[in-house]
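Need tokens for this chain, all 301 residues.
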Amino acid sequence: MRTIEIVEVGPRDGLQSEPEVLSTEAKLSFIQKAIDAGIKRLEVASFVHPKRVPQMADAEALIEVLPDIDDVSYIGLIMNERGLDRALQTKVQEIGMVVVATDTYNQKNQGVRTSESVDAWLRLSKRARDEGRRANVMLSAAFGCPYEGEVSVDRVVELARRVLEGEPAELGIADSIGVGVPSQVTELLGRVAELSPDLPLRCHFHNTRNTGLANAQAAVDAGVTSLDASIGGIGGCPFAPAATGNIPTDDLLYMLDRSGVSTGVSLDKIIDASRWLESTLGRGVPALLPKAGQFPSGRAA
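Here are the structure tokens for all 301 residues:
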């Protein structure tokens, strides 16, 4: 049976674009529910200026109270040197860095051009590894940019070639605004995989144009080892106009489970977490499984 790892990004990418700012205690409950469902890797916070992303203002306080579990890994997202300085003062096991494929989007997201973020990644990845942390990099807006339009496969492949010099433990490819389609996923992942055939690949899709799950299936078929998803399908990038949520962990698990792909995650418990999230936020979430339920009805995950 094929196995895919689910990286839960709801506590970070999910909550960062929601209008509500959850308390540290509520975030802890959210993360605990994901862990109880079987999630082993979670993006829990981003180390960014609280005025830019107020939902992440309690990053250090949250990480301090997270449970220490041997086989659970917490990921902290950074953009620059200051972010890494903060992350290294916490117990996150993994450092995640974002490099956006276009200059305009990277400037709005990180305040510098793409080439400057690549240079920063090469420095910061070494520092993170020297401190005993796992260092990963994600190439964002790999299928299109809200400001510059189409992004060529050649552009992303060249960026991948450059960031691989930083020896990431894993390379991520993200459709940050949900414009990609399965044929593009197949082509891009095939090209990127040629650069380092043994390097684990991770994909991050958004469902802005309702192609997120189809793209996730294409990524599975292309051989990725990990997929990002957000409980309830909440979130999106606060610096991308009209960007809607990530692919829902709930809906993704249903597709993978029914396709015979093992994740080790309980769909029933993820649905319960989505319903808790709806109650906490005071509104519905985009995921469909909390509404439709399991099939056959009552089947154990």
